[in-house]
């Protein structure tokens, strides 16, 4: 007996430094275990896929670069979908899920993914899975891992719906075509109205079922109105929200404390002589308001007494000491006060399946 072919979905990634590609490769690797086949392409390879005719669900992993721009590999794609002449139903046939990568240290967080997501919605595309926005500032895996875990069920639900929709459209077209040749023209209006009625009744029934289910979910989740919040239950609106706690990822980092104290024996391999300078700060201006969550400073450094060559586009790193009291408090909380002066060696474990 021939084995049943795996159900396909289109997997696109847009990367700047490789993180989005690594996550897409992880999705591609896991797909087989869920009976699915990922047709993976860089979003720039527009000759290898066609969203205008794509019938299967689409998964997009896209990062952000610069001050909120899409990656270089996505610029051609973004320019194409931002064409103002495209009709609002251009992607009405499309089902997609999007995972955006970004860093909340920057002003326009995940703007690359948000731009694509917003434009696809404007062109009629529909989500089959909620958009995920991963923050490199706190760790991409906090969003990426749970998002991938939930992707498989969403895909399996989306694939039958897509096939059912295609079968229904094919059946309606076939009936309309055969009857239009057999019946007089006077009956065509009646047939069309009956087909439209069937569609409306089907959509109405589904909407009613979905609404009923959501109301049931809210009724189950909501506690009695006269209760007070405590350690074991909450009150609306929190109690009516779906709260996701990310699973603890498998260990892939190895941390070793070294007995060496004083001069770091490995520091010379990281910083070569003649490339590090101690310079005074001549000006510091706070650019953000006092109530801002994050503080942005304008710093001016005096490099008059340094001698180094640089070219436009070169980057430099500023190494600043941490606040002593904050470091001591953190060591105390972690139970590492006795190891405060030890050097730490951090390595990626061999054989880890963690990507990126």
TrEMBL record:
- Please indicate if the UniProt record lists Oxidoreductase as a keyword: yes
Q: Which cofactor does it need?
A: FAD; FMN
GO biological process entries: homocysteine metabolic process; methionine biosynthetic process
Alphabetical list of Gene3D superfamilies matching this protein: 3.40.50.360, NADPH-cytochrome p450 Reductase, Chain A, domain 3
The record's GO CC annotations read: cytosol
Q: Where is the Flavodoxin-like domain?
A: 9-152
Pfam entry (one): Flavodoxin_1
Q: Report a single Gene Ontology molecular function.
A: FMN binding
Q: Which UniProt keywords apply?
A: FAD, Flavoprotein, FMN, NADP, Oxidoreductase
Protein name listed in UniProt? MTRR reductase
């Amino acid at each position: 007996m021939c084995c049943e072919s795996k159900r396909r979905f289109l997997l696109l990634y847009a990367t700047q430094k490789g993180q989005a590609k690594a996550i897409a490769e992880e999705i591609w690797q896991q797909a087989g275990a869920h009976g699915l086949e990922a047709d993976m392409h860089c979003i720039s390879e527009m000759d290898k896929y066609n969203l205008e005719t794509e019938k299967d669900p689409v998964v997009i992993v896209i990062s952000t670069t610069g001050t909120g721009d899409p990656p270089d590999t996505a610029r051609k794609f973004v320019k194409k979908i931002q064409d103002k002449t495209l009709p609002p139903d251009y992607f009405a046939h499309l089902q997609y899920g999007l995972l955006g990568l970004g860093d909340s240290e920057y002003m326009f967080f995940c703007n690359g993914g948000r731009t694509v997501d917003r434009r696809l919605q404007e062109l009629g595309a529909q989500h089959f899975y909620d958009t995920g926005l991963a923050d490199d500032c706190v760790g991409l895996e906090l969003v990426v891992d749970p998002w991938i875990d939930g992707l498989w069920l969403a895909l399996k639900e989306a694939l039958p719906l897509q096939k059912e929709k295609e079968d229904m459209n094919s059946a309606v077209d076939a009936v309309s075509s055969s009857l239009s040749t057999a019946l007089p023209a006077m009956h065509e209006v009646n047939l069309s109205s009956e087909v439209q009625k069937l569609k409306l009744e089907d959509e109405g029934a589904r909407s009613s079922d979905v609404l009923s289910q959501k109301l049931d979910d809210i009724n189950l989740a909501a506690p009695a109105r006269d209760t007070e919040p405590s350690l074991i239950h909450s009150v609306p609106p929190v109690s009516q929200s779906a709260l996701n706690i990310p699973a603890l990822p498998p260990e892939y980092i190895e941390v070793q404390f070294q007995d060496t104290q004083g001069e770091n024996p490995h520091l010379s391999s990281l910083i070569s002589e003649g490339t590090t300078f101690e310079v005074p700060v001549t000006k510091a201006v706070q650019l953000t308001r006092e109530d801002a969550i994050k503080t942005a400073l304008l710093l001016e450094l005096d490099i008059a007494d340094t001698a180094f060559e640089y070219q436009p586009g070169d980057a430099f790193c500023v190494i600043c000491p941490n606040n002593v009291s904050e470091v001591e408090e953190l060591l105390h909380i972690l139970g590492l006060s006795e190891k405060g002066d030890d050097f730490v060696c951090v390595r990626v474990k061999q054989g880890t399946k963690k990507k990126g």
